[in-house]
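lol ok so funny story. i was supposed to be doing the assay writeup but got distracted and ended up predicting the structure for this chain instead. priorities right. anyway since i did it might as well share w the group, maybe its usefull for someone
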Amino acid sequence: MSGAIAIIGGSGFYDLPGVEPLATHEASTPFGAPSAPIVEAQLAGRRVLFLARHGRPHRLIPSEVNARANLFALKRLGATTVLSVSAVGSLREAIAPGDVVVPRQFLDRTSGRPRTFYGDGVVVHISFAEPVCPRTAEALVTAARASDATVHPAGTYACIDGPRFSTRAESRALRAMGADVVGMTNLPEAALAREAELCWATLTLPTDHDAWRDDAEVKVIDVISILQANVVRARGIVATAIQAIDPDAPCACQRSLDDALFTPPDAIDESTRTRLAPLLARRLGNGATT
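and the output, tada:
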C-alpha cells in the first residue's frame, strides 16, 4: 500500500476541492483515542488522511488534544507525511493577519503535555535541531506563493498552553526571545512526528497581533472572523501542496530513530515491541544495535 499524506487541522479541511472520500476510521491506540475519526480519501492520485485536531465539533482545548494518539493512529494507517494547519497570533509588525507563515523553528512554552511515545523501558533521544521536514515545508511555501497570500517562508513559532491568550508582558517576552508567531497546538505534535519518523511541516494562519502592541488585544470574535477567511485560502494551499508531495519518496525524517534509540533492541521486551510496532518495527527490524 502506498504511503499517505495526513492533514491535521480544522474540520473545514475535510472538504478540500477534488477530494473523493473512501473510508472513515474509528481508531484506538495505546495512548487513547484520537481527537476525531480519521477520514481516508483520495486527492490527485494521493491517499489522504484527514484528522480534526480539536474534534468534530470543535470541543477540545489545546492542552486536551491527544497528540500521541493522533500521530500514532495516522502512522498506523500508513501516513508518511503530515501537513499541520493552525491559527496563530503575529508577534511581528511585518506579519499581518491574513498572511501565511511556514515556521521552521519552535520555542516550547508548554507544561504538562505528554511529550514522547517512549519511556517505560525504551529510551529515545531524537535530534530536533531542525524540527521541520524541509522538503514538506518547501512544498507548502511553493503552494502558498501560488495563491494570493503574502507568504513568510520561515519563522519561529512559540507554543503556549492556552486556552487563554497572552498577557501583554508575556507577548513581549516571546518577541524578545525571537518568536515570530504564537500558537497553542504545534508542540508536542512536531516532536512526536519526528519520534514517529514522519515528515512534518506546518502552515500557520495569523489572525491577530497578539497582545504586544499597546493597542492590541485578542478577542475570539475577531479571531474567528479572520480565520474563516484564511481557511478558504489555506484549503487551496494544502490541496496544491498535496499534489506536489510524493508520500513514498525517501527522506531522512523517516529514519530519525536510526541514531536516536539508546536502548539495545534485544533489551526491548516483546509486549513493548508489539504495543509500539507502528513506531519501532522498521528500526528493530534492521538488526542494528546502538
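The chain has a mean pLDDT of 94. The first strand starts at residue 4 and ends at 9.
back to the writeup now i swear
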